[in-house]
Amino acid sequence: MISIFKDNVELCTALADLFISTGTSAIAKNGRFTVALTGGSSPVTLHKILAQPEYQDQLDWNKVFVFWGDERWVPLTDEKSNAKMAFETLLNHVPIPKQNIFPMWSDDKDAKAYAADYEQILRGFFGEDEANFDLLILGMGEDGHTASLFPHTEVLHERTKWVDAYYLEPQQMYRITLTEPFINKAQKVAVLVFGANKASALHEVLEGERNFEQYPSQLLAPASGKLMWMVDEGAASKLTDEAKASK
Question: Where are the alpha helices (DSSP H) in 106-179?
Answer without folding.
Answer: 111-126
